[in-house]
């Protein structure tokens, strides 16, 4: 389902929705991980995030404001923190996962996915905006910033 060209795909089911994006980045996992785990810096490089408050670390809580719904503060918990490999945060409604996989050609494949849903999902699913465009912007912003940082090393 995931694609390597930075184009997002969404799979809709009655009780859930899942969005994926995947892109190859000419940077090492350490550089990309640094961007993904420094909350205060997100607004400097990411055009989809207004702010993230808190520490991005295992068991920590963060508060995220996104341009998709600027009036809402998402209160999320970090549930998986595998340095330079995998990061997961979410709430009762859904989970967002970031995966980094080094390639043999010196690139790193970045995958971001988010699954939202539950028993009441059909009642409010139409009120949740699509994530595709936001995921594409996020992954392209990450690629641009990581490659800039990597080239300045």
Polypeptide structure, described:
An eight-stranded antiparallel sheet has the order 1-2-8-7-6-5-4-3, covered by helices on one side. The mean pLDDT is 94. The radius of gyration is 15 Å and the shape is globular. The chain has helices at 29-37, 42-45, 121-124, 132-151; strands spanning 9-12, 16-25, 49-54, 61-66, 74-82, 86-90, 94-102, 108-117. It has a single domain (9-146), classed as Alpha-D-Glucose-1,6-Bisphosphate, Chain A, domain 4 (2-Layer Sandwich). Helix 1 (29-37) crosses helix 4 (132-151). It is built from four helices and eight strands. Strand 6 (86-90) and strand 7 form a beta hairpin. With 153 residues, the protein is of the alpha+beta class.
Runs in which pLDDT lies below 50 for 5 or more consecutive residues are: none
**Cα-atom Rg, whole angstroms?**
15 Å
Head-to-tail CA distance between termini: 34 Å
**Biggest sheet record:** 8 strands, antiparallel
């Amino acid at each position: 389902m995931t694609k390597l060209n930075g184009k997002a795909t969404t799979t809709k089911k009655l009780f859930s929705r899942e969005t994926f994006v995947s892109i190859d980045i000419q940077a090492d996992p350490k550089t990309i991980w640094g961007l993904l785990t420094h909350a205060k810096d997100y607004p400097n490089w990411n055009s989809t995030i207004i702010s993230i408050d808190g520490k991005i670390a295992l068991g920590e809580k963060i508060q995220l404001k996104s341009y998709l719904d600027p009036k809402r503060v998402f209160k999320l918990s970090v549930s998986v923190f595998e340095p330079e490999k995998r990061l997961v945060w979410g709430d009762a409604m859904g989970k967002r996962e970031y995966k980094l996989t080094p390639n043999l050609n010196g690139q790193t494949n970045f995958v971001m996915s988010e699954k939202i849903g539950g028993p009441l999902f059909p009642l409010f699913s139409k009120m949740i905006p699509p994530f595709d465009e936001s995921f594409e912007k996020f992954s392209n912003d990450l690629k641009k910033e990581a490659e800039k940082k990597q080239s300045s090393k």
